[in-house]
Amino acid sequence: MIIGLTGQTGAGKSTVCAFLKEKAIAVIDCDKVSREVTEKGSALLKKLADAFGADVLFKDGSLNRKCLAEKAFSSKEKTRLLNSITHPEILKAIKEKINELDAQNILLDAPTLFESGADKLCDKIIAVVADENLRKSRITARDNLTEKQVSLRLSAQKDDKFYIEKADAVIINNGGTSELKNNTEKALQKIGVI
Question: Residue 175, Cβ neighbours under 10 Å: how many?
Answer without folding.
Answer: 12
